[in-house]
């Protein structure tokens, strides 16, 4: 009886021992490498169970296996026995289970994990996290887009887990988050050691149209194009190149945004400190055209000192021309200093002031009455514009085209390009106007005809036409008209028809109108004047003599 009890206890203990030593399928167990053959490791997992594992499962991606006989390793028991009576085990699945446990804890603690990028997939890369494979999106590789990820492949480095799902086997990691965190810490440390006004050395990291980014040792500062030099800089690559070491001054630090503004020109002497002394008003200097706009041209007097030649100060004669047709970029020109505004750091320059006013020169060389020759440049409704020396124009008004008739009737006789002779009649330098006269070239026939004639003079004229209102007469080629009321002192004799064309008549000049180029003539005025003279000479009405007696005596006197 006692013997039977002992056997039952032994059997129970044996079964308990067997149950304890026999591992469960689907669990991680410890085993010992007992042999390595044919690229496989033979592992004893206990209870006389052995299994085979490919050697590559003992190596990280891109590395050689590190396994030897006698090593203790953990493997995943997939099945206790296969068709060959061997245990089905996996080192890779054991590493994965171990990794997932470790990664879940790291994810919960928001801790970094170590891994290595080993492959490229659509939209990013694959990362080995010590047994578990994670996805690294392309946007999470670096703070800036990475063109070549070759140097990062196989390199062990820290990552941040962004998302993980064990059931689906998905893990998403970020390398960028680690870099940004490190960058922020490094940036804060560097900024803490910087002060405004401090001079530091930096390396040009990137160049844009508006400036350059300079690495100050872990933190970037912006060197704006306007702070690179006192002179005008059209593009930063004129004076900087990527990788160049430069000395800069810290202009401003924004503690909130960690933005740093840098300057190079602040380390140089400001040329504006001596501008007023070096460039007094009305002084003439040689400069170089640096930029041309619609409203003028910028001229560099020296590095850092530029002045504007406004379009209105560029030429005496070219008024509505683009500045680019007067000067060209990089051209050296002489300019005059017109105004200096130190507060706004502006210099107003003049180009035309370095040359004499062509209207002044013309007035000196061509006084009024001088005859000139020029080409008809333009024809308008009020006259002709004629080109003159000094690239200036003079105007011939309609009224100065001809002595006879209307200017509107003869302007059609002229065309652009015609060479004409004219006389300078007026020069207005202030208004930049020159008046010319074509009709004055051959003199004034009216003035020549009436040169010795005065009011009250008796002249002889020839009748050229008979009209109802009077008669037309001619004197030295000049036409005049005698009205009916001026044909005779006697109303009965004021008949135009009593005259004939060709008759010679003595008339009295009553008016000389140079503007209308007309003589006022009158037979009546001549007769009245003769009567008055006869009365004064031969008697008066007070003496009792009649007009007939007086005239008779006057006639005898004439005989």
Automatic annotation (TrEMBL):
Top-level taxon of origin: Bacteria
Any single biological process term in GO: translation
Keyword annotations from UniProtKB, A to Z: Repeat, Ribonucleoprotein, Ribosomal protein, RNA-binding
A Pfam family matched in the record: S1
Keyword hit for Repressor: no
UniProt GO molecular function: mRNA binding; structural constituent of ribosome
Gene3D superfamilies referenced in this protein's UniProt entry, alphabetically: Nucleic acid-binding proteins
Keyword Mitochondrion in record: no
Database matches in InterPro entries: NA-bd_OB-fold (IPR012340), Ribos_protein_bS1-like (IPR050437), Ribosomal_bS1 (IPR000110), Ribosomal_protein_S1-like (IPR035104), S1_domain (IPR003029)
Signal peptide region: none
GO terms for cellular component: cytosolic small ribosomal subunit
Residues of the S1 motif domain: 26-92, 110-176, 197-265, 282-352, 369-439, 456-524
PANTHER family (alphabetical): 30S RIBOSOMAL PROTEIN S1, SMALL RIBOSOMAL SUBUNIT PROTEIN BS1C
Biological role: Binds mRNA; thus facilitating recognition of the initiation point. It is needed to translate mRNA with a short Shine-Dalgarno (SD) purine-rich sequence.
Family, similarity comment: Belongs to the bacterial ribosomal protein bS1 family.
UniProt-listed NCBIfam families: PRK06299.1-2 (NF004952), PRK06299.1-5 (NF004955), rpsA (TIGR00717)
This protein's name: 30S ribosomal protein S1
Taxonomic lineage of the native organism: Bacteria, Pseudomonadati, Pseudomonadota, Alphaproteobacteria, Rhodobacterales
